[in-house]
User: What shape does this take?
Amino acid sequence: MLTNLKKSNKSGARLGRLKTAHGPIKTPFFMPIATKAAVKNLSVEDLNCLGAPIILANTYHLYLQPGEKLIKKAGGLHKFMNWPHPILTDSGGYQVFSLSKINKIKADGVEFQSHLDGSKHFLTPEKSIQIQQDLGSDIMMAFDVCPAGEAKQKIISEACATTFDWAKRCFKTWQKTKKKQQLFGIIQGGIYKKLRDQSLKQITGLDFSGFAIGGLAVGEERKDMYKILEYIAPKLPENKPRYLMGLGRPEEIVFAVKQGIDMFDCVIPTREARHGRLYQFCSLKQKGAIKLFDNLAYQTLNIKNEKYKMEFSPIDKNSKNELLRKYSKSYLHHLFKTQEGLGLRLATLNNLEFYLRLMDQVQGAIKNDRL
Amino acid sequence: MLTNLKKSNKSGARLGRLKTAHGPIKTPFFMPIATKAAVKNLSVEDLNCLGAPIILANTYHLYLQPGEKLIKKAGGLHKFMNWPHPILTDSGGYQVFSLSKINKIKADGVEFQSHLDGSKHFLTPEKSIQIQQDLGSDIMMAFDVCPAGEAKQKIISEACATTFDWAKRCFKTWQKTKKKQQLFGIIQGGIYKKLRDQSLKQITGLDFSGFAIGGLAVGEERKDMYKILEYIAPKLPENKPRYLMGLGRPEEIVFAVKQGIDMFDCVIPTREARHGRLYQFCSLKQKGAIKLFDNLAYQTLNIKNEKYKMEFSPIDKNSKNELLRKYSKSYLHHLFKTQEGLGLRLATLNNLEFYLRLMDQVQGAIKNDRL
Assistant: This one.
């Protein structure tokens, strides 16, 4: 349930409060990705220091390793990884199609081979919900088919049909539970307005806890993504949370917020950190600055660049995180050059703090009708 | 200077206080290794949480990368890596002979090729001291020649002669400074009593701040190492700190403490952590337990072993470190299986805490004449 909803009078942006079994979260929010029950190179204490309100974990990965039964036995994913705040789990669908060696859609579900050891598995809508129930996430996602951005219309149309069929089966399975965990439906349709409209009608016809837009930020051109987002986002039910899966660059998130999206997740901050690419707010006048809104802009820098070798200023002098105020860019450059694990941790802290502060800025701007 | 010296009445073990420019340290103590200005996978905040009193950094590595001039410009090694407590730097000698591709001892010093890029360098006693001065460590080590444990007597004899020559040159260079940094001499001689006696006489003839035994734990048999240690350690000057370089397993450290050694460093806790091998105190009755003294014993366990998959108890329920009390063995097993960076951090915290607590136990036992 989305409460305290305030709409910007300048755009479709919304400010709200999403209730979950592990506490409420202010929207719009960003979810750091804890693929295999850990945000890469961070502890949950690090995440708490950053003030991360919720994280996302991947059903496909946890199903394969260590297995959802083990996590259930540990007392659920929250307990297994010591995370006391909300968790969203995806359905496994996206990874089954993008990661597994061989996958084949059958009437009942998908047969696939593990990318780890080639072992055979069969995932169905019912099975996906069961796994997510065993994990004990606060928000579960319906099992869907997500084609690549460049897929032909026919493929996407078929994916929509299967997604609807599976959505109904997920919904039915969920109806039999006590519904402590929320379940979100996913709208597919690629960059085709007609398919999006149809999928929206089908999926929103089921009383899910919230709705996600899937099949965007999967390889299509940014202008196409913006066009379809502008078209479809405002049509999503107003009183329910809206989640844009897998997005994105900071300016893309700001764009999506203006279309009325409440929830985001993306590997960019954590993945780019592992390559030494740091996100930082900067002045609009800064060379290479990318404008977000008002006077807010950001830049990315590659800490491995020689020019940071002698840069003794803090990684981020304005950070709320002591480590980022204390360690210098020069030291971080050295840690990357010598491949020390601490470097990955500091860069990840920097980028996640950036994304979380971006959402604070976005929330503040909606509150004051500046976005 | 070693003050408040108390000798055990049961062995040669000594309890004391070593003054340094960055504060005093209780002896005997263990130094975690921060090879390249970082203890692998830990932050200095982690080290502070563990109560590490001093760390060791490697001159050879820091000279090559990022270079001592950069660190000097950063304000010294303490500032560069944000470590407020004492630092000991080795002389670079050991790595020049063990790591560099080609090395050639000349009258003045050693010519060698960097193991990183093959670039040519020339290290002399004077240069080693200059680098250590630029790094600004609290304790510098004299530049020495350390042959392998299986080296022939002739080789070791020559190494002793060169080590003495270089010790004099290091000492002379140090005499010209303000002596804010201490300088320790190193005694070589392998497992040969005669060579050790001679080296001891030569090196202790110079008024160094302390004395180290080098050339042990370099591949020789443990019984030979114990024999020579028993022989030579009690002959070291009483009023100065005694450092046994590169040792060792917990039981070896306890043995050396009984011979009157005050200082230790070793890669074992950090390196074994990276392979998932954890050190833990245990009951003497535990299968595979290794006795230390009194009722104190330890075991090692490999967290990657299948038997820890379902072991939901804490990594160490008695740890002073919150992370080790909070995360389970099962979760740590999973982190290693999925190669998550957090696993390396937790295992390193565990092992360093073990080594540091071992030294607490040792200090307590000397105090009460139990060792």
